[in-house]
């Protein structure tokens, strides 16, 4: 039986020291206050507010959008007038538009270290280093996770220090089974505390056998963090009878629902190519932001749809973005 997400976070305190778990301490916020001296009314109001707010401020909704042609090449040069944005089928006015966002990027790089990856792991780690060196700017940051039956943060927080990132990758060690959804959940909760664009890159063969959270909890954590998931699915033998097709489909859906993308890699060259494409996409995204004109209190999840119009071949373009956002945060 799988444990709840709350149980995972409790386990994480023992497994992964560092800043992430320091955020999971609001359990004392509802302790009685009656024995404390009376303060001014403004202080009383502040004390009465919970330290963890469950409702999201939806005054401004950010949507990072990737537009590609039929061959997968990024499309640049579009303007605000070329985008039609809807929330729950109602067209919205785009308040903020950026052709190539200069916002910093926080990248969680999560590497599967289960026994099923042992033959390919050294090559994956070398490719991950090349990706980190190619993508990171001084304003960006990366955190490296390894996951097997447990999730470990190798860099102990986010950093732009490439030496520290390389050391974290070098210290990745093999485990036994695989907990993909736990890795998505833990990395997403850490990304939720970051500002700017947030990306989760998963390197895995797709097989999940030991997660303590369910798929839907992992997906919701990523959606609440506004994280784009890029899944690199390692397939040593293209048509191996041992492939975990169900796990692959779950990774594909995670990527689609968050506005990311998935790639298959059967060789080091394909792994490097997947990293290169991810890097290119992150440098050519559009930022659309809007103030929702219609708020449906009965709907916890609000769906977003973006289309391109007013340019030749627009019908052939593929537009990728997150599926929507939650108006109410999950309690964690």
Question: What can you tell me about this protein's structure?
Answer:
By secondary structure, this protein is α/β, with parallel strands linked by helices. The protein folds into two domains: 61-100 and 285-326, no CATH class; 105-283, von Willebrand factor, type A domain (Rossmann fold). Helices cover 30% and strands 23% of the residues. The strands form three sheets. The chain has a six-stranded mixed beta sheet with strand order 7-6-5-8-9-10, sandwiched between helices. Strands 4-11-1-13 form a four-stranded antiparallel beta sheet, with no helix packed on it. A hairpin with a 2-residue loop joins strand 2 (83-87) and strand 3. Helix 4 (121-135) runs antiparallel to helix 5 and helix 6 runs parallel beside helix 7 (215-225). The longest helix has 16 residues, at 268-283. It starts with a helix and ends in a 6-residue tail after the last strand. Residues 9-57 have low confidence and may be disordered.
Summed up:
The chain is 30% helix and 23% strand. With 332 residues, it is an alpha/beta fold.
Tally of contiguous helical segments: 9
Chain-averaged pLDDT: 83
Strand content: 15-25%
CATH architecture tag of the largest domain:
3-Layer(aba) Sandwich
SS content category:
alpha/beta
The biggest beta sheet reads: 6 strands, mixed
CATH first level of the largest domain: which class?
A: Alpha Beta
CATH topology of the largest domain: Rossmann fold
What oligomeric assembly is this protein in?
single chain
CATH superfamily of the largest domain: von Willebrand factor, type A domain
Identify the overall geometry.
globular
Write down the secondary-structure element order.
HHHEEEEEHEEHHEHEHEHEEEE
Radius of gyration: 21 Å
Strand order of the main beta sheet, please?
A: 7-6-5-8-9-10
| Number of beta-strand segments | 14
Distance between the termini: 20 Å
Total separate domains:
2
């Amino acid at each position: 039986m799988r444990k709840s997400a709350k149980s995972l976070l409790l386990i994480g305190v023992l497994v992964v020291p560092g800043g992430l778990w320091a955020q999971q301490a609001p359990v004392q916020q509802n302790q009685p206050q009656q024995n404390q001296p009376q303060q001014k009314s403004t202080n009383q109001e502040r004390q009465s507010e919970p330290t963890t707010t469950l409702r999201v401020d939806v005054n401004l909704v950010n949507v990072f959008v990737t537009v590609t042609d039929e061959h997968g090449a990024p499309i640049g040069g579009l303007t605000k007038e070329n985008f039609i944005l809807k929330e729950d089928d109602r067209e919205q006015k785009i308040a903020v538009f950026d052709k190539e966002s200069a916002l910093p990027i926080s990248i969680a790089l999560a590497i599967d270290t289960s026994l099923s990856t042992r033959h390919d792991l050294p090559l994956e780690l070398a490719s991950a280093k090349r990706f980190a060196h190619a993508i990171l700017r001084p304003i960006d940051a990366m955190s490296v996770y390894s996951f097997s039956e447990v999730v470990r943060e190798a860099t102990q927080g986010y950093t732009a220090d490439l030496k520290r990132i390389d050391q974290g990758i070098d210290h990745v060690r093999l485990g036994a089974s695989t907990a993909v959804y736990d890795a998505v959940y833990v990395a997403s909760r850490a990304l939720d505390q970051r500002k700017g664009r947030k990306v989760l890159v998963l390197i895995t063969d797709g097989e999940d056998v030991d997660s303590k959270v369910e798929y839907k909890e992992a997906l919701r954590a990523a959606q609440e963090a506004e994280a784009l998931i890029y899944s690199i699915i390692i397939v040593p033998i293209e048509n191996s009878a041992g492939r975990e097709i169900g796990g692959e489909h779950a990774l594909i859906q995670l990527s689609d629902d968050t506005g990311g993308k998935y790639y298959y890699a059967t060789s080091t060259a394909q792994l490097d190519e997947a990293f290169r494409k991810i890097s290119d996409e992150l440098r050519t995204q559009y930022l659309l932001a809007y103030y929702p004109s219609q708020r449906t209190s009965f709907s916890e999840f609000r769906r977003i749809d973006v289309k391109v119009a007013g340019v030749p071949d627009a019908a052939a373009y593929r537009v990728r973005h997150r599926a929507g956002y939650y108006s109410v945060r999950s309690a964690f």
